[in-house]
């Protein structure tokens, strides 16, 4: 009997849709029962509304991911795109769990924040792979361009040499965030366990203030390197319109954080 696994592209979408509908039929009654059981306050209402958006977010995100998997014709570009798309269900599920179980929010947030760094890394991979595939002589193209000076607030720093040096340093500037963010996240988890984290309280006596400062500096420098990278290669990157894509990623991070 021939194996049907090779035809997974035909049945994967109906299967996922069926699983989602079954999950919906189970989850909605449970949520309603939970609301009836508990005294409905502001927190419970927020959790219920978040659950509604979660149920809307997951199928939309999974459908986009499945479309890429079914039409997997450009692995170098689609692989980082799929990883980026997973950010939405991960963030929405994290927010919903944190609302329902605030005591374990620090643990699920640890996974979410590590994935944020991974997404920034994959965005850079996406841009690099696109440029490498389309422009094999990318370094020579950059070398032929006019010298790009640093942008504010680093405009007083010596410019990076056009070519391989600029390309390497822009990538390194983005990659440093993928190291710093998991490190500070794990540090935050340890500080929470020993009782010195004190999230949300700006004070020099807690760990949260210092970790937020380190995270922001690291993230801002990563963003700066991405902007500099785009400014140098704006013409070459225009066909894929990276600005809108990047703003979508950052809006997910910004809105979920605040």
TrEMBL record:
Keywords: Membrane, Transmembrane, Transmembrane helix. It is a multi-pass membrane protein. The keyword Kinase does not apply. It is found in: Membrane. The chain crosses the membrane at residues 12-35, 47-69, 207-230. The keyword Transmembrane helix applies. One of its GO terms (cellular component) is membrane. Coiled coil: none annotated. Pfam families: Solute_trans_a. Its main location: membrane. This is Transmembrane protein 184C. It comes from Pseudonaja textilis.
